[in-house]
């Protein structure tokens, strides 16, 4: 027992020393859009949190949740001080703009990151997309429908992976609302990640809460997305269900996200 306690103490000291060796910096409210209207200038901003003095680090572009109707850019506390950079993205919201416009904003933020991350020491070949709920939906739409990034001269093959925490896989309920549909009228069209399944998409991590506690059909949507990706030959898609957790399952999911991010980086 004494040796075990000593081992844990040494591990704690080692981890503490590691965290102290790396200094982190944060820059806020940088505009990433070329749109000149006041609402775009207000919403289309990013914060970047990165390990200063470190080179070749991995970057996670993080899209916030809020149903595409609310929320603000964020850098989750749990993801800080983990040796990676996080780019927290703000975007315009419905009903001021359409869901298609919001996805375009997200694509512009990815373009900004590819063009500028090297200035902070990052590697443009180590950029992953991630988000919770509506943010996860944006990540999947960008990674599966290759046209959004292709229009910005970025191939989805350059993405390290997609970390989706409790996304909708069918057409987002806010997009359905634009057509006069309710959340209980499931639809799969061009604004559904499921519409764009393909075998050559980036690696994908899907995490949801407990199927009995999640929002309407959220686990089942993700299970179907995984199944369809496998059927078309996608080699690297993983689905995790967090038993006992509802839609706000971000903390149990964050460590799993970081582990998968490390796995992608090693390949």
UniProtKB/TrEMBL annotation:
- UniProt xrefs under Pfam families: BD-FAE (PF20434)
Asked if the record carries the keyword Hydrolase, the reply is: yes
Q: Which GO terms describe its molecular function?
A: hydrolase activity
Swiss-Prot/TrEMBL keywords: Hydrolase, Signal
Domain BD-FAE-like span(s) in chain numbering: 46-147
SUPFAM superfamilies assigned to the protein according to its UniProt record, in alphabetical order: alpha/beta-Hydrolases
**Signal peptide extent:** 1-19
Name the InterPro entries on file: AB_hydrolase_fold (IPR029058), BD-FAE-like_dom (IPR049492), GDXG_lipolytic_enzyme (IPR050300)
Q: What is this protein called?
A: Alpha/beta hydrolase
Q: Which organism is it from?
A: Sphingobacterium olei
């Amino acid at each position: 027992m004494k040796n075990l306690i000593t081992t844990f103490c040494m591990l704690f000291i080692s981890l503490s020393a590691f965290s102290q060796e790396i200094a982190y910096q944060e820059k806020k409210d940088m505009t990433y859009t070329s749109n000149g209207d006041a609402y775009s200038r207000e919403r289309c901003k990013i914060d970047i949190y990165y390990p200063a003095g470190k080179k070749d680090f991995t970057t996670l572009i993080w899209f916030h949740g809020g149903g595409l109707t609310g929320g603000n850019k964020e850098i989750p506390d749990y993801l800080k001080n983990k040796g990676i950079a996080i780019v927290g993205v703000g975007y315009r919201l419905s009903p001021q703009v359409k869901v298609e416009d919001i996805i375009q904003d997200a694509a512009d933020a990815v373009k900004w990151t590819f063009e500028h991350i090297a200035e902070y020491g990052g590697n443009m070949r180590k950029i992953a997309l991630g988000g919770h709920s509506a943010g996860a939906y944006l990540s999947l739409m960008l990674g599966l429908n290759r046209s959004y990034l292709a229009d910005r001269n970025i191939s989805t093959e350059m993405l390290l992976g997609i970390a989706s925490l409790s996304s909708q896989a069918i057409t987002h309920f806010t997009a359905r609302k634009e057509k006069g549909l309710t959340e209980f009228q499931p639809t799969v069209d061009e604004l559904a990640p499921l519409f764009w399944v393909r075998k050559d998409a980036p690696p994908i991590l899907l995490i949801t809460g407990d199927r009995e506690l999640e929002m309407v059909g959220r686990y089942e949507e993700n299970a179907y997305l995984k199944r369809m990706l496998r059927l078309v030959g996608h080699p690297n898609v993983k689905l995790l269900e967090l038993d006992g957790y509802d839609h706000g399952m971000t903390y149990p999911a964050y460590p799993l996200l970081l582990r998968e991010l490390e796995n992608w980086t090693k390949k």
